[in-house]
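Notes continue from the previous slide.

Worked example: a multi-chain complex. Inputs as given:
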Amino acid sequence: MTNFFTHLDWLFLGTTIGKAVFAWGLTLGFILVNIFLERKICAFIQDRVGPNRANVLGIRLFGFVLNFADAVKLLFKEDITPPFVNKFYYFIAPLIIMTVALMGMAVVPFADDLVIGNIVIPMSVLDINVGFLFILAITSLSVYSLVLGGFGSNSKYPLFAAMRSSAQMISYEIVMGLSLVGLVMVFGTVHLREMTAMQGGLLFGFLPKWGVVMQPVGCILFCIASLAELNRTPFDLPEGESEIIGFHVEYSSMKFALFFMAEYANIFVAAAVITTLFFGGWQIPWLPTETIKENAAIVLQITAAFAFSGVSIVAFLLHRFYSKRKYKWKDLREKEGMLLYAVLACIALISIGAIVFAQYVPFNSILKSSLAAVLQIGIFILKSFLICFTVVWIRWTLPRLRYDQLMALGWKIMLPVGIANILVTGLILILVPGK
Amino acid sequence: MTENNTQAVSLQRIVSQLAGNDHIEFEENCGSLFAVVDSKNIISLLTLLRDTPSTHFDMLVDIVGIDSLSLTPITANRFQIVYVLTSTDLGHRICIKVHLPSDTPEIPSVSSVFAVANWLEREVFDQFGIVFQGHPNLKRLLNFQGFAGHPLRKDFPINGRQAIPESEDLLDEMKIKLGKLGKPIESIKIGECGNTLEKETSNDSDPFIVNLGPAHPIVHGILRLLLAVEGETIIAAVPELGYLHRGAEKNCEAGNYHQVIPYTDRMNYASPMMNNIGYCKAVEKMLGIIISEHDMILRVLFCELGRIMDHLLCLGPHLVDLGALTPFWFLFQIREKIYDIMEKYSGARLTYSCVRIGSFPFPLYEGFTDEVESVLKDLAGAIDDVRRLVERNRIFYDRCCNVGAITPHDAIRNGFTGPCLRATGLEYDLRKNKPYYLYETFDFSVVVGTNGDTYDRFFVRVYEMIESVKIIRQAITRIKAMPPDSSVAEGAKKSKGFKKIAPPAGAIYDSTEAANGELGFFIISDGSPKPYRIKVRSPSLCNYSAIESMVEGTMIADLVSIIGSLNVIGGEIDR
């Protein structure tokens, strides 16, 4: 026993747990963000207002609070298990999909290695060299949830959905794998940390060496295949609301909520993976980690200046928003504006403080590393957020494909293009030396 | 009028020549030509009328059953059937009347001559108990199978409602269909779960039987289809109607002529004003009233507003069925604005009942035309947005092109009218072919498609809205040019005098071009203030009648698209 504890790497254990909590927190947090985005963006696209009523003590946060109302509703709803279901499959399906959704983030690096003294902490939960193969393996498990959920419900429409989802997800996994082969050929690794580090380089001296620049076709294929794996419009056939109602027809309460949450968690995971593979991950373009560390004070000041001006713009917009609205005397909603202004003022004060701090206090190595890590995590989240935004945007723009068209797109168009992409990439790698 | 008369006389001559030895009596009633023939030769006569180039009655518009129990002094011939025939290219119309004996009301089925007769005859069988010999599937259409009695017979009590003991499983029809396909299924039974049909034996080659509807997101209104599928391909479909059957035609017989107007609202609730106007037009024709020019143009305006509302209701949900939710909102905002205008005018948002026989109940309110014009401007923007979203969208194109295509020949045989017929490329529009309400003085064109598929049906509706906008703009300028207090107010006063109207005894078939096709009213008057019989020719019923042949062989996702594009209105089918 003593042997075990003495040989246990406490630092490794501690940091891994810390990172795992962070990654899970991020995924779970993004469920809320994605649902909020879905509601507000679709309202914006459709010329509507969107949710704006649910509030806690008058605080609505533009409909974000509705998420909590939803959670409470789903938790306290009656949990109905229909008498005709196969209980084991029926219960295990929502568990599988949520587990898989939470495991996807394990290998994604969200910042450059944190160097403190002579300790190097890789900023991904698992720093394993199978890289994205792990993600492909894990996400392919999620099809079991849909199939078991549809099949275990022992009902006709969910069975259609199970059939559709199994065919769809297996077909698009192949395309997904193929689209990444070109990337592996270019970067020469499947390790996500190395891959992201390589994307910091410059092509022709000015273009960031992101995956999307090196492998544009691969990027498009991978994004489409991810959409199909996510079961989002135009590939939402397993749900197919107007046709077969969906694989979760027989589910209610929290079991349904798990499916629902897993969808949004999966969007974030897919966005994080797409960011990492094709959009430079945590890389800030033209600003490698060394540069940040060397010019820590200036970088912090510029960031703080950006934050300050951002806050000012937001405050101005908020003022316009609230000045239009006239509430009755003692309406709780009056306080919402004050709260938001207070938060903004805090951020403004902190950014001013940071500018002053950077001017007068010398930076040590820990501060420099943390600054780089924080900035990189920030940029990583921002990129993922933008991809989540795009996914939601696509849903409210396009109609749904038909089952045979989906198969034709996967097998007759995307698969040959994927293979051609590999051949072309190989030719370029041979013909253009010195890459 | 004289032109009509000469037309009718020449038609009479041709028809009597065709009939040869058989004696045919002709009656002319309020502009409708009736030919009374013998029931035995009905198949050969209708075939002859259909195939002779000089008559070319290629469309069976409606079959009307009549129970003349209290209409005429007691005779041996209690029942009558009227076949309303029309010619899509020559533009004439004839009603073939057949007398049937009271004790054995039987007549040969004409479903081999006109495909649409299949359902129309089933309806007559259902409502009157008239047996059609040789009909392929003579079951009740609107009432449930265990219903006792025939509701539209005059001796059936108006409050004779019956409770439905259990739902119909439709397996009898399905078994016949699958047997024809060479895939007989013997051991289908109702599963434990009540509504789920489960097979006892698990033979892999057996088709999967699934119920679509009556409550399913795509069935606008309440329809039901029992499907046999292999994978996602539908191999056999059995439709069931009647979930919204309220016996409107029976109810109409209980009130006076004005009290019928609210019932017409509830038939096609997507464009109620068009139904009101269609009904009032028929009664006015019967009474010989010619309404003022101002009222005519106002009715044109309301009809076209109704057409726009109906098309918006078709296009938006059709796109939702295809998975595109956004265009729905763009379109429905406009519909909402039209609702606001109509509410301001009539006081109701959905069921206006705001037309009176002879006129309108209220004059237009201040600023009506300006509001309509602003809506038209918004509508143009919305149509533009939606077209940009779908017109060149590859997914939409693939989902709709060559889906549910129907040839002009089949479409006519199935009694298709309106946008669904025009999508096949046939230029048949009552507004042009049989102009009413000064439509001939308006400048607009008839929109036609090429393939008769879902894509064409969709865009025929889109471009028809643009044409309607043109008509409304012209109507507004003409109304503005008229003296402001010209006639509606007077007409409203006058229409109060029409409360106790009693048209002279006789029958009339009159139709208008409603949003979904030819909306006809067959009215029989016995001279009393209550209508003796009102039969509504609902365009949706005929447009839906080809559903089996359209969906068989396609996929479930196509079925969604087909039903959406046919725009079947449950209230209008079931009445």
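Summary box: Confidence is low (pLDDT under 50) at residues 190-201 of chain B. The longest strand of chain B covers residues 59-67.
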